[in-house]
Backbone:
């Protein structure tokens, strides 16, 4: 018998903030409800924690509410080397290296996919194959990258 294993999903800071944004609120809330219902294993990171500490109180409160259900990916030398490989491959410039670090943390933490509302630097049809090419060169598996809207189940 094959046991159904929950999918490990890395959520970046934008997903937490999305709960309080008119445009992204519905899918973001549905995503976190799926986490509460153990539909997915949520992975986030020390980087997300740092970014959220600088954000609105409501986002901080959501983060700390969800924290007990979360695996935290630490910022390791391994993740920093992969982040550097992404910037050396010119996927992102140094200015946006924290976005590259989110992808590296998700990859190194063996998440199956990343969810983000960052369409410019992460959920981007031109950048996703580039991230995965670098992952392959460095002997990591490919990682899927989606918006929360694409991973929640349609109730209809």
Residues:
């Amino acid at each position: 018998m094959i046991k159904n294993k929950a999918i490990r999903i890395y959520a970046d800071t934008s997903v937490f903030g999305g709960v309080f944004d008119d445009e992204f609120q519905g899918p973001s809330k549905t995503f976190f409800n799926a986490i509460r219902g153990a539909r997915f294993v949520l992975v986030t990171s020390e980087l997300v924690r740092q970014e959220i500490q600088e954000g609105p109180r409501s986002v901080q409160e959501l983060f700390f509410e969800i924290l007990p259900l979360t695996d935290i990916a630490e910022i390791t030398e391994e993740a920093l080397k992969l982040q550097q490989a992404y910037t050396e491959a010119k996927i992102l410039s140094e200015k946006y290296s924290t976005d590259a670090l989110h992808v590296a943390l998700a990859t190194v933490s063996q998440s199956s996919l990343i969810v983000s509302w960052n369409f410019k630097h992460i959920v981007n049809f031109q950048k996703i194959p580039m991230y995965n090419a670098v992952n392959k060169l460095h002997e990591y598996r490919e990682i899927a990258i989606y918006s929360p809207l694409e991973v929640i189940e349609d109730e209809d």
Observations:
- Strands lie at 7-11, 40-45, 70-73, 113-115, 144-146.
- DSSP finds seven helices and five strands in the chain.
- The CA atoms of residues 118 and 124 lie 8 Å apart.
- The domain at 7-150 is CATH 3.40.50.1010 (Rossmann fold).
